[in-house]
Write a structure and sequence with these properties.
With 230 residues, the protein is α+β, with helices and mostly antiparallel strands. The protein is built from ten helices and six strands.
Length: 230
Amino acid sequence: MYTQRASRLAGAVVWVNAPDAGGSPGRAVLPDGCMDLLWDGERLLVAGPDTGPYLPEGPPRRWAGVRFHPGTAPALLGFPAHELLDRRVELADLWPAARVRRLRDRTAAAGEPARALEDIALDRAAAAGPPDPWVHRLVRRLDQGTPVGDAAAELGLGARTLHRRCLGAFGYGPKTLARILRLRRALALARAGVPGAETAIRAGYADQPHLAREVRRLTGVPLGELLGGR
């Protein structure tokens, strides 16, 4: 069972995912432009940005996490997103072991590990300061369907500079980010019951076959299979 709530950290989400009664770990994690700080009951980990579906390995277990607003996690973690692309990495591989050991013990002792993760994220955000405003501006414009070239021009950035900055903040270039944000829009519409053809047009696809191809490329399964669990 998956539950989530808005975080005290602006733009972030706090979530818990527990195996169902049959022991199933649940559905695959789909690309969403975000990175997460994770707790699996024993370890603190960082989920890098995904370019395809991810299904947790090993036996089913209870997970807790903080999902950061797209593009903001690298500044908090002190690690560029492209080095974590499609990876789950122990926090101890990124931060000093002694610090991570203290945080791990604190999270393990917490009555609500998800809240302990949120506290870690808030502490990091206070130390790092506010995120660079270009990140939120780019995400907002691309999520509105603005072409990458137009968004770059609005930011006053050349194509190469924008691509380089996106690698550090999101793990991939702006065109991939735009595709993933468009997928996110389409899934939200489809799960709300909007018909396929209308979903395609409203989300920014050329037509319904284009939507179907992109869903399969980014998630590995047809749209109907994704919607079967809604």
